[in-house]
Amino acid sequence: MKQLIDTAMGRRNGDLVLKNGKIIDVFSGNIFTADVAITDGKICGVGNYSSDNEADLHGKYVIPGLIDTHMHIESSMVTPAEYAKTVMPHGITTVIADPHEITNVCGENGLKFMKKSAETVPLDIKFMLPSCVPATPFEHSGAALTAEDTKRLAPDFFGIGEMMNYPGIVNCDEETLSKLIGDRIDGHAPMLTGNGLDAYISAGIKTDHECGNTEEMLEKISKGMYILIREGTLSKDLAHLINGLNPYTLRRCMFCTDDRFIGEIHRSGSIDYCIRESIELGIKPIDAIIMATQNAAECYGMKQKGAIAPSYDADIIISEDLSLTKITQVYKDGILVAQNGAALFDTTPTDISSVINSVHLPKITPNFFAFMPKSEFFPAIELIPDTIVTKKVSAKISDSLSKVCVIERHHNLGTKGFGFVTNYGIKNAAIATSIGHDSHNIIVIGDNDVDMAEAVNALGKSGGIAISKNGEILEHLPLEIAGLISTKPAAEVISQHDKLCKTAREIGVTDGIEPFLSLAFLPLPVIPEIRVTDMGLFDVTKFEFIE
Amino acid sequence: MKQLIDTAMGRRNGDLVLKNGKIIDVFSGNIFTADVAITDGKICGVGNYSSDNEADLHGKYVIPGLIDTHMHIESSMVTPAEYAKTVMPHGITTVIADPHEITNVCGENGLKFMKKSAETVPLDIKFMLPSCVPATPFEHSGAALTAEDTKRLAPDFFGIGEMMNYPGIVNCDEETLSKLIGDRIDGHAPMLTGNGLDAYISAGIKTDHECGNTEEMLEKISKGMYILIREGTLSKDLAHLINGLNPYTLRRCMFCTDDRFIGEIHRSGSIDYCIRESIELGIKPIDAIIMATQNAAECYGMKQKGAIAPSYDADIIISEDLSLTKITQVYKDGILVAQNGAALFDTTPTDISSVINSVHLPKITPNFFAFMPKSEFFPAIELIPDTIVTKKVSAKISDSLSKVCVIERHHNLGTKGFGFVTNYGIKNAAIATSIGHDSHNIIVIGDNDVDMAEAVNALGKSGGIAISKNGEILEHLPLEIAGLISTKPAAEVISQHDKLCKTAREIGVTDGIEPFLSLAFLPLPVIPEIRVTDMGLFDVTKFEFIE
Q1: C-alpha–C-alpha distance, residues B275 and B254, integer Å
Q2: Most buried of A55, B60, B112, B275, CB within 10 angstroms?
Q3: To the nearest whole angstrom, how far is the Cα of A282 from the nearest Cα of chain B?
C-alpha cells in the first residue's frame, strides 16, 4: 500500500505508466485523456504521471479488463491454461468458472485439476463450487457432491455454482437447501416466474443466466436478481434480451458465455463479442463496457475490479476502438499478457493423472445395440435447429431414423438407454461422444450397430468424439481429461474439431443441426420435451421415464 | 429460509401481507401495484398474496426504508434510543453511525454505551469504529484509540470510521495506515484532489462526504469513490451538489446527515428531507429514493437492504406521496414501528454509569480568565455565517470583542487556550459548552470573567450548555452523557435547546451566527483559518500555534 501511495504522490516511480490514453470512465460515463500509473499490479493514479517505464498510447482507449460472469471451461474443450491463452488476447481478464462438468465425472479430483491448471496462467479464474453433482437423479454420474461435501469445500471457493435444482429449492428439500452457503450463489431458473421465482430468490439466490425473453428477465430484475446475459455456442440470448433494458435495469445486467467452444472464442471472441454485438444492436458502447466490467464486479463483490481508478487491479485493455476489434495490448495486474491477438505467456503442464482414463467400459460388440421398439408406433426425438429443446414425436421404423444409445461409463454399471432420432440424417455411419450433459455418459448415434460399436470402442479409456463409417474410424478427437477436455493446444483442438464437423456433414448429418452439441444435450432430463439417459427414454413434460 | 419459501409458494400464510400497494421498484425505475408478503422479518414475495394478517394499503406507495450512510448520533444530543424514536417515523430504518465524539471523551466505554443503547430499539444502527481518536495532536482529548486498539476492536464493528488524517495517509504514517482494516473504510477528504486524492484512494478508502463543489465531487466519483451527499445542521451540501449528477454518477451517490441536531430532524426530517429537497431541486423522485436506498446498500455491501424484493429485509415505508411528507407507516423487519409520525416502541434505559461525570475541573474563579494580548493589535477570530470556516483578522481590545477560552476537562491537566472573537456580540454574559469538536473540551465565551466563571461552574461534572448573565445562570441544558448527550427524551431536549437559542439572542449573539455550533467547532484545528484549543490559538493556514 505504501508503494501505491508513494507512487501517487510522486515520491516513487510507477512500475509502469500508460501515457496519453483515453480513459473509459465507467463511473461517469465519460471518456477523458490521462496517464495511468501502475505499481504492484494496482492502478494507483489517473492523471499526470511519469516513470522510467512508460508506454505511450497515442490516444488509444484504456478499458477495464472484461469479466465473464459464468462459464464452464470444460465446454471450451481445452484446459484452463489453454483457455487463458485464447481468451486473454480478447481482453477477458477475469472469469467466474463453474467446473460442474468435470466434477460430474471426476468429483473432487476434477476440482483440484482445474484449480491447478488455472494457477499456471495470469487469467483470474474464480471457481464456484458446483451445487448439482449429479444434476438429476435420472442418470448415473461419475461422482456426487453431498451437502456435507459442499459445506467442507465451500470455504475454498468463490461461491456456490448455479443451483439448477429448482424443484429441490421450492419444495424445501433439506439436502438441497443445505448447499446454499454464503451470499454468492448463482442461480439457474429458466422460465421460473411468479411465486416459484419469489421462493427461489427467497432462498438467497441472486443471479440468473437463463432468461428466455425480456418479460422473464424484467420480472427477475424487479425481484432483485442480477441477469447474466448469455452468449454461448448453442444458447445465444443476447439479441433477444439486450434491447429490453432501460438505464435502471441495465445496471443489473452483465454478460456470460456459459458454454462456448474454444473455436468460436478464437474466431468471434467471448465477452468482447458480447460488447460488439450489443453495440451493433444499438446499445451505447460505454453501456456495453459498463455491463462487462463495473456491473459484473459489483454483482460478485469484486471491489477492486471493473474500473480504471486508484486501488483497482491493473487489468487493462488497450484498444483502438470501443468495439474491441483492435485490441493492441492486454495487461493483467499490470503485466503485459497479450499483444495484437497473441498471448505472451507460456503454460506449464499440470499433472493430469487423476483425471484421465475416465471411460470404464468393456469392448462393445454390435449386438450390444440390439433393441426394437415394442409397438409399431413409438415415441421418438425430433431435434430442433439452434436450440437444445427437442420435440417428442411419434415414429415408426424406417431408413430415416437414427438409433441413439446412452451408456453409463463411469463405474461400468452396465446401464444403457435407447431412443430414436427422426431428423439427424446420419447414413452408414455412427458418432460417439463422451460429452453428454450433465453426467457425461457415452452417447452414440448411428444407423447400424457395427458402426455404433466401432465408434464407442474408438473412444477407448480417454473418451472424446469419434466418427465411424462402414466399420472404419474416420475421425477421432480424444478428450483425455474426463472425456471432456483435450490435452492439446487450442489450435490443434480447433483444427481437429473442424475436421469432425466436415466429416459429420459428409456422413449425412442434417444441415442446421449442430452435429455434436445436439447429441451432448440429449441426456439432460430437465430440458423439454424428450431425452434419453443411461437409465432410459425420458418424457420431460411428464417428468417420468417412458416404458 | 424454509418459512420464506413456504410462504412464497402459498403453503404457509405470511406473517403479514401488505395488499394493494404501489411498489417502488428501485431496480427498474418503475412503480407497479402488487402485494408484499413478509415472513420472519423478510420480504418473501411481491405479487398476489394473502394472509390472515393483511393490511390494505389502498394504493399507497411502498418504499424501501431509508439509509443514513454516515452520521454521529452524539450531534443529535440524544441517546441512540431516543434518536431512533425520532428518526424512524421519518422512514429511516438503517443508520451507519460513527461514535467518534463520545469515544474522544470516554474511549471504549463510550463505544459500549452507544451499542447498548442501540440494542434497545428497532433502528438498525451499524457502528463504525472511529479511526481518529484523538482527531489531532493539537488538543487534549479524553481518550485515544491506537492502531493496536483498532485492530483488536475492528472485528466487532461494521467498518472503520471516517479517516480524517489525510496527511497521515499520504505521508504513509505507519500508525495511521495500520488503522485501515478491512474493505469498508469511510473517508473524509475535503478539498483533496489530484495526486493526493489518488494516494488517499490507493490506501483503500472509498467514500467521501466532504465535497465542497461539483468539480471536486466528480473527480472523486471518476476515481472510484462513492459520494455521501451531506445535509447536516451546519454543513448543508445538497443544494450545491445534487444538480452536478448524471445518470451514471448518480449511481455512486447517496445521502448522509453527518451532524444533525434532533430538533432539526423533528421539524424538517433527516434522509426523507434529503429526498424532498432533491425532488424540489429537479431530481426525479425515483432517483432520489434510489440514492437513499439501493445506492447506500450497495456502497456498504448490505445485500439485503434497499429494495422491495424477495429475500430483502422487510424495512418498508408506506407513504401517500413520494416526497415522504405523508408517511403513514414504517415497518422494520416486518414489524410496525411508527405510524403517522409517532414511534410505536418504548425504550428501556441503558446503564450510563461509565459515561457520566466526564467533566473534571476544579471550581473556576473569575481570575482564571485573566489574559491580555501582548501587543496592541493581535490576531482574532471572525465567525462567518452558515459555515464552520473562520477568518483570521487583526483586532485590538474594544467593547465589541468576546473573549473565548478552551479548557481541558478530561484529566484536569490545567491546560487552557485563549482567543478573541470579533463578531459574536455577547453582552454582560457568557456561554459555556462541553461540546467542542473533536476533543470536546470546555469552551466558554463572554465579555466578562465573572460570567465566564459562572457559566463554566454551572456545567458541573455533567457538562452541557449554560448561559450566565450578570453573575446568574439563565439557562442550563445538562448533557450528562460525556458532556454531549442528554439523558432526557427528545422533546425535552428540543424545548430546552429552543430556550437556549432564544436566550442567546437576548444576550446579544449576532443574528446569522449559530450561537452554539459556532462555538463547538472553534477548537477543530483542521478547518481554516484560525482556531483555539486547550493548547492555544492555532493558525490553520500555517498549521502552527500562534505565540
Answers
A1: 10
A2: B275
A3: 18
